[in-house]
Design brief:
Elements (H helix, E strand, L loop, with lengths): L1 E4 L7 H9 L5 H22 L12 E6 L4 E6 L6 H9 L6 H10 L6 H5 L10 E9 L6 E6 L4 E7 L5 E8 L9 H11 L7 E9 L14 E7 L16 H11 L9 E7 L5 E7 L13 E5 L2 E4 L14 E5 L16 H24 L1 H21 L1 H7 L5 E2 L5 E2 L1 H8 L10 E6 L6 H9 L4 E3 L5 H11 L3 E5 L5 H4 L12 H14 L4 E6 L8 E4 L2 H11 L15 E6 L3 H8 L2 H18 L5 H15 L1
Parallel strand pairs: 2-8, 12-14, 17-18, 17-19, 20-22
Antiparallel strand pairs: 1-6, 2-3, 3-7, 4-5, 4-7, 5-6, 8-9, 10-11, 11-14, 12-13, 15-16, 21-22
Helix pairs in contact: 8-9, 8-10, 9-10, 9-13, 17-18
């Protein structure tokens, strides 16, 4: 037996590890199982090239709880260690003195790859253990070793009688960490971090029902067999080649990732690249609709099949954070506890690759089955529209597949939209005016007026549409968007067809004075000489002001404070209508009654007549029927 001091020159290394390095104590099990997995995969490699004269066999990793003895065992059948290797890899903190480590850590908590540099994964055991033992037997023909440490720099290292290859780590669980002796807690951690580890992980046993014999009667009682309980799937779908998988396999894996999710995903995107970095993964488009407040943190980040986090900001482009799935890369630089992403050129490359891959897949889906793509548009549009606003590289490719649906359920790309509307909706200044509605029901009367003119009306109802059309207008010369209720249709698409006014200037002035005496100041009265059959009173919202307000409310892009401004409306009065003439000719109370009723009807068509005003209007209307 030998004893000595671990090669650290700072006596309080263990309290520092426990307190500062790892913010989350539960990750100790992930780190120790990862070490066991590495040891097993190293053995597999050495046997495959003939350097290890031993049978690889079918090794597993086993987790055992000894509740009475307050011990947790992590056992692997991997490469094992000799006494010299224990001295080298465990006692010397992978050749690095603690001072060097502490200096680097204190200088920057963002030092990348710190686990690999310092071999600190094993020492996470001391976050939960008052004493740690290692029993290890190398694949080499050398005696087994037994290492013990109680959390101080003191250790013992002596030969041991262990005969089977591999390593067993025994954690003597500290009094403040006894929760890690509970079966449910360990199962929870294994499911969270190790569900897809590449080596089978055994945790206890389970009962499996034996097949019912063919000759069994109605009184047959099922018989059960006690079998090993393996908690992981060592060969998950994302680690396979796309050519190996069918659509059913992708859907099955989706439900393996999200057991409580009953809806099927709309489609998936398989990520698979090995240069200039390694990255695999599968992203799923769930049904999203138009809600920007979708739950994020649904994409899981793995490193070599070890779960790291479900906060993938920085790796996955922001607009895709609403998706679900898995991303796995050994090249993602993380801090010591794997809880934080480091600034690194690879990260941006990975993000750019994912953006490009998603765009290419969407284009392929669009080209292969446009009808199906159109049917799914409402469920995916919020992601794609957000991507156009937030990722220039995605925006460049989006023209090939982003759709603009009409109120008649036709779908155009931007290029198709320009081509189809240019003859009918180009105004006198050569500008193509794209009409749109944000609510098909609420703006029905305005849509109807536009259709009577032979115009197409888009249905753009996502919460970020104001930002999107602002960008489209900036990037497309002679293209403008106007909501159908922003003005009278003849003003929205001005064709230079001027109507002669039936009223003289003095009559118009008198009419406006009469209107403004009754109509609230929230409405700006505009007299227009329109077709005599056109609607007499129309309430509109100025496009620019409304758009800026919406942009401010949905975040960014709007003028400061505009989101809190009161709604502003125009009241467009058709001076050539019979109603305008009747108002002009009416006297006092009769005139006021006409104006009030006409305004209420206009407000009703915009969904603005509510509460007490609506009740009074209904009551008045019934009175006229008597």
């Amino acid at each position: 037996m030998t004893s000595g001091k671990i090669n650290v020159s700072v006596e309080n290394i263990f309290p520092l590890i426990k307190k500062f390095l790892y913010s989350d104590h539960e990750i100790f099990l992930r780190e120790l199982i990862s070490n066991g997995t590495d040891a097993t995969l190293k053995l597999k490699h050495l046997t495959s090239i003939g350097e290890a004269k031993t049978e690889y066999g079918n090794p597993i990793i086993e987790i055992k709880i000894d509740k009475e003895g307050k011990k947790l065992h992590i056992i692997d059948q991997g490469i094992g260690m000799t006494s010299d290797e224990v001295e080298k890899y465990i006692n010397q903190l992978a050749f690095s003195g603690a001072e060097e480590f502490l200096n680097k850590y204190e200088e920057s908590a963002k030092d990348s790859g710190i686990i690999g540099h310092f071999g600190l994964g094993f020492y996470s055991a001391f976050m939960v253990a008052s004493k740690v033992e290692i029993f290890t037997k190398s694949f080499k023909e050398e005696p087994a070793a037994h290492w013990t440490c109680d959390g101080s720099p003191e250790f013992t290292l002596e030969p041991h009688s262990k005969t089977d290859r591999g390593t067993e780590i025994v954690l003597h669980i500290a009094e403040d960490s006894l929760e890690f002796l509970e079966e449910f807690k360990i199962r929870e951690l294994l499911t969270k971090y190790n569900k897809f580890m590449p080596i089978p992980i055994k945790f206890g046993t389970k009962k499996e029902a034996l097949p019912k014999p063919e000759d069994a009667g109605d009184d047959y009682k099922p018989e059960y067999l006690e079998v090993d309980n393996f908690i992981n799937n060592p060969n998950p779908a994302w680690m396979k080649q796309p050519t190996e998988l069918k659509e059913e396999d992708y859907k099955s894996f989706y439900h393996e990732l999200y057991p409580s999710q009953f809806e099927e995903p709309l489609f998936n995107i398989h990520l698979n690249v090995d240069y200039p970095f390694n990255l695999t993964g599968i992203l799923y488009f769930p049904k999203l609709g138009s809600d920007l407040q979708i739950q994020k943190d649904k994409i899981q980040l793995y490193q070599n099949q070890v779960f790291v986090t479900d906060n993938v900001e920085g790796i996955v482009p922001e607009f895709l954070l609403m998706l679900k799935g898995v991303v796995d890369s050994p090249d993602i630089p993380l801090n010591v506890s794997r809880s934080g992403l480091q600034a690194d050129s690879n990260v941006k490359k990975i993000s750019n690759y994912i953006t490009r891959k998603v765009a290419d897949k969407l284009k392929a889906l669009f080209n292969e089955n446009r009808e199906d793509f159109e049917a799914k548009w409402n469920d995916i549009k919020i992601v794609l529209e957000y991507g156009m606003l937030s990722e220039p590289k995605f925006y460049e490719k989006a023209g090939d597949f982003v759709l603009y649906p009409t109120t008649e359920n036709k779908h155009y790309t931007l290029a198709e939209l320009k081509e189809n509307l240019k003859d009918s909706q180009t105004d006198k200044d050569g500008k193509l005016v794209v009409l749109y509605a944000s609510n098909k029901e609420a703006q029905h009367s305005y849509i109807d007026i536009a259709k009577e003119k032979g115009y197409e009306v888009l249905l753009l109802d996502s919460p970020i549409v104001s930002h999107l059309i602002q960008k489209l207008e900036a990037d497309n010369e002679n293209l403008t968007f106007a909501r159908v209720d922003a003005d009278h249709i003849d003003k929205l698409i001005n064709k230079e067809e001027t109507q002669i006014s039936k009223l003289s200037d003095s009559e118009k002035e008198s009419l406006k004075t009469s209107l403004e005496a009754v109509i609230p100041k929230a409405y700006s009265v505009q007299l227009e000489s329109l077709d005599s059959e056109a609607t007499p009173f129309i309430i509109t919202q100025p496009e620019f002001m409304r758009r800026m307000k919406e942009m401010s409310q949905s975040g960014g892009g709007g003028m400061f404070g505009m989101g809190n401004m009161p709604e502003m409306y125009n009241l467009v009065v058709n001076a050539n209508s019979e109603l305008a003439t009747s108002i002009l000719q009416a006297k006092d109370d009769a005139q006021k009654e006409l104006v009030k009723n006409a305004l209420d009807l206009a407000k009703l068509s915009q969904g603005l007549l509510k509460g007490e005003e609506l009740t009074a209007f209904v009551k008045r209307s019934f009175e006229t029927l008597k």
